[in-house]
Amino acid sequence: MAENLRRANVGDIVTFHYRLTDGEQVVEDTFSDDCMEMTLGDHDLIPGIEQSLVTMTASERKTFILNPDQGFGAVNNELVFELDKSKLPASYKMGDVLEADFGDATLSLKFIREKLNTVILDGNHPLAGRDLRMDLYLLSIR
Fold first, then answer.
1. 107: domain CATH number?
2. Residue 66 contacts residue 46 (beta carbons within 8 Å)
3. What is the pTM of this model?
4. Does residue 65 sit in the same domain as residue 81?
5. Would you say residue 2 has pLDDT above 60?
6. C or N terminus of the chain, fewer CB within 10 Å?
7. Domain total of the chain
8. Which helix (H) or strand (E) holds 49?
9. In angstroms, rounded to a whole number, what is the distance separating the alpha carbons of residues 57 and 24?
């Protein structure tokens, strides 16, 4: 079967460009830079992108909406919590992101609200809970 008619499948190495937008702005765009190369099935991509690449043919373009389950997940309220200001660096301000080491994992915590003696931190991915537009262009399959 010719390369351009073969559909991508799990185990294939695919080369592609993508553009991810959140409805307001471009979040990531590889069309003006180097393309991406991944092995399908290695789970290196968010689920909706990998699922969409499977069954595409080389030179095919696809535009679709990723819902939170296919993208960065739903907002997890257990990852939003209050912390005493005294436990933060003095220079920490609204919008800053703090990296917190939890032994086997590192979590990025965004400072989202300030109270009198505490701050509210959010450990969710910035795109959690959002529908995202994805533009894919599959360049090659091998």
1. 2.40.10
2. yes
3. 0.77
4. no
5. no
6. N
7. 2
8. helix 47-53
9. 29
